[in-house]
Amino acid sequence: MRLLLSIVLLFNSIQSCKDGSNNSNSMDSNYKYTNKLINETSPYLLQHAHNPVNWYPWGEEALTKAKEEDKLILVSIGYSACHWCHVMEHESFEDTAVAAIMNENFICIKVDREERPDVDDVYMTAVQLITGSGGWPLNCFALPDGRPVYGGTYFNKDRWTKLLQSLAGDYASNREKWLEAAEQLTEGVKRSDLLPINSEPAKFELDSLTKMATNWKLSFDNKEGGPNRAPKFPLPNNYKFLMQYGYLNQDEAVLDHVKLTLDKMAMGGIYDQIGGGFARYSTDIDWKVPHFEKMLYDNAQLLSLYSEAYKLYKSDLYKHTVYQTIGFIERELMDKTGAFYSALDADSEGEEGKYYIWTEEELKPILGTDYELAKSYYEVGKKGRWEHNTNILLRRKSDQEIAEKFNLSIEELGNKISTINGTLLKEREKRVRPGLDDKTLTSWNALTITGLIDAYSAFGDDRFLELALKNAKFITSTQIAEDGRLLHSYKNGTSKIDGFLEDYCFVIEAWIKLYQASFDIKWLEQAKDLTDVAVANFYNSERGMFYFTAESSDQLVARKMELNDNVIPGSNSSMANSLFVLGHYFDNKAYLNMAEIMLNNIQPHMTGYGSNYSNWGLLYLNQAFPFYEIAISGKNLIEKSRQINSDYIPNKMLVGDTKESPLPLMEGKFVEGETYIYVCVNKACQLPVTDVNEAKKQINSTLK
């Protein structure tokens, strides 16, 4: 890789920056320039449709043109809520002199990473191999055949201009070096997720997870929660695993850390205290200053996390957080069809966070006699003080402390804060709103269904189930093709882009959740159908894992596998979890064997960096501890299931019917006029009971 090193050294004066959020261009004015992005539906691509750069969308036209003109390709990747994408656009892509250099020497392709995560993965991996880091905007240069040769993230105008000129000149005079660099780098991209099948017998012992947790604890921030570094991302799947591990393994230190983290996030500036919903991450160690963009996928997963945490910790703060966040999603991210939009920008009126922050001078006349209470509750002028005399509303004191200070009951305080929030929300809506990314992604919508069902499970609110079913109807009627394939993206009546593994795995998870909430067997049958489609089109039997793209999809320079968990669980870990559960539902040994092989492949890598394998860890827990198949048969099915769901029992699946059922786990369990509960492990059931508390005793006795 010496040639790659020489390329890096050649451009070592060029710095990279991290990612953020952005505003959209107005489409209502007359523009001097219009490029081929004008025909796209992605809000991010449309933001660049009037740049003087001759942008192309990713596709055959651009790639063919690069080969015909023998020009380097610039693959520039971002997303609509990306702040530094926005900055680079204004500095460079809207500059006619810079655009002239780009147009003369390169075929310039703009990619929405949310629409094309497959393209993003290939070129992000290349940039990480070259620079050791990544982020957005991602700018990767490639040969006309698409093989990457150099790249980085954000470049200011001066460095970008110098880089363009240097690359263009060097490509013209040192062609053989570039071909060699492309070959080496592409091979590195292909090998980056090469995981050979683990031939050792599968053996899942708790000791491995204990080692993983022990190493993980070294990075805990036990003062402010989360990791002991900044920036801090919520990473819901991490805390879902830690909570389940701490509960099953009776690790109080882990459970305390999870509660501290969830408390601090819900009371911090990363959470929109008056409108609900979490920002993408905190820029500091205190969860105070968010990167103000709001992503659907974060909030969907946090619904699940806080709903499950409520079952364990019974915290009113968690219930409030779930209800308020669902209110935010309904109000700001839901279409009339039941589809959910993707994101809100951080910026409005050209300033990050302007929509969400307040000065004391603004708050006093708006709140009147309630100002002092709001000031104390939301740390105005204290911990909430930010730049330019503004405040980020956040909390440091408990409701009990504030109630005592103002001589109020907890109920009176709650009513007053609700009134204050309503007043501020109404006033805030008069401001210029952040840009909305109004495309709908199948994978993120499926995550939201799961979040809503988890909220329904925790609180028994039928409205949450109704919202989930409405969105499921949208997916089944719009995002599933006639041949059973999923589609990835939707906007303005158009569904497009073949589904990725993330679409299949999260829809399968959502359908399983819908079954466990409604006990309508059609959801399980559809989950199985999608699983079979995924196995046929994505599975690599030689490696025992799934590709991210289908066999029939457009082939990139590398066909990647998503093995690690990140801000969203990895698609392979999600598939493995669903194969495990569906294997139990249908007594499908092939599914169970695939899940076992996948986990066994990953197992050797898990102990060193638990955060990267938390969703795999959940599957591991279901192997290391009893996994309960709770069968309910009879007319009181829904009532009994709600009672079971009121407690935190993470290592379980529910199966049930009010009549005879074709599912193997229900065979011989129906008795006319009675409702029986069977607690089973690996199809071996204890004596049936009619009382939920007796069933819970059976579970607790097994755990001990």
Question: Would you kindly provide a written description of the structure presented here, covering whatever features stand out?
Answer:
Helix content is 49%, strand content 11%. It is built from 26 helices and 23 strands. The strands form eight sheets. A five-stranded mixed sheet has the order 1-3-2-4-5. Strand 22 and strand 23 (684-685) form a beta hairpin. Helix 10 (236-248) runs antiparallel to helix 11 (252-267). The radius of gyration is 26 Å and the shape is globular.
Tell me briefly what this model is.
With 704 residues, the chain is of the alpha+beta class. Residues 1-28 have low confidence and may be disordered.
Please describe the topology of this protein:
Blueprint: H1 2-10, H2 43-47, E1 56-57, H3 60-69, E2 72-78, H4 83-93, H5 96-105, E3 106-112, H6 117-131, E4 138-142, E5 148-152, H7 157-173, H8 175-191, H9 206-217, H10 236-248, H11 252-267, E6 281-282, E7 290-291, E8 294-295, H12 296-313, H13 316-333, E9 343-344, E10 347-348, E11 351-352, E12 358-359, H14 360-367, H15 371-377, E13 390-391, H16 399-405, H17 410-428, E14 436-437, E15 440-441, H18 442-459, H19 462-478, E16 487-491, E17 494-498, H20 501-518, H21 521-538, E18 539-540, E19 545-546, H22 571-586, H23 589-602, H24 614-624, E20 628-633, H25 637-645, E21 652-657, E22 676-681, E23 684-685, H26 692-703
Parallel strand pairs: 1-3, 2-3, 20-21
Antiparallel strand pairs: 2-4, 4-5, 6-7, 8-9, 9-14, 10-11, 12-13, 15-16, 16-17, 18-19, 20-22, 22-23
Helix pairs in contact: 5-7, 6-8, 10-11, 10-12, 10-24, 12-13, 12-18, 16-17, 18-19, 18-20, 19-20, 20-21, 20-22, 21-22, 22-23, 22-24
